[in-house]
Amino acid sequence: MSTSSEHHREAVVVARRPPPPTDRITWEPSDRWVRATKANTTVVDSRRSRLVWEPGRPVPLYAFPEADVHVELLRPATRPPTGRHPGAAAYYDLTVGGDTARNAAWSFPEGDLAGYVAFEWFVRSALDHWYEEETEVFVHPRDPYQRVDALPSSRHVRVEIDKTTVADTRTPVLLFETNLPVRYYIPPEDVRFDLLIATGHSSRCPYKGVASQYWSWKRGGPTPPNVAWSYPDPLPAVRDITGKVAFYNEFVDTIVDGEPLERPVTYFSGAPEAEKPPAAP
Description:
Layout: E1 26-29, E2 34-38, E3 41-46, E4 50-53, E5 61-65, E6 74-76, E7 90-96, E8 99-107, E9 116-119, E10 129-132, E11 135-137, E12 148-152, E13 157-161, E14 164-169, E15 173-177, E16 183-185, E17 196-199, E18 203-205, E19 209-211, E20 213-217, E21 228-230, E22 245-247, E23 253-256, E24 259-260
């Protein structure tokens, strides 16, 4: 019950936190020492980078002052793309040791990012290795607003494919990651590997490490390949998922404490048929 004094307080507006803007480039300074190499040659070495979010992209990339880039390795692009990176003023090919990566970098024309150079991560990485401090970074820079928590649980989790139980556990690890559905990591002793077939697929994640073990549904059908994965040696922050197996909620039926979950719709739901899913989330 409110008191009379509370009626004189200034009204507080309550609103759900909005998503990042999709109509403009946003950026913020990074305090991390960032380096990148190609063919054992340092291309970028910077303590003054900026994290840049492009419209419509959920993850950031780095932009660097020209003084921190070995620009002598860059040449104006011979076939610059159209519309790949909003705001790009010019594209550059990168040549190291006789190997040329087309459209590997681009510059920004004006405003806060004028005089900065960014490098391709998303179409394919233009550089061989990226480092933040002394730690190698995969796929894209870590987003400071992205959180990943791996929490051991006693929930009862069951996974079905084509109405057949392929995993059933009461000791899962639940992995909570910003803007993704919960992933349920299941101890291998609770997984029916006789219903799965190991594949040679692997993927990398900037928050979890290398998923070097994948499995497909042995009976085929509409279930895409590489529907389950495991991190044998994940990054320390999520060590509790070590060796455990997760399934794409998007393509299997997940029952938690007796309640069937709706299949989420995510980026992975629309992955190309040739490689579904494209990477371990």
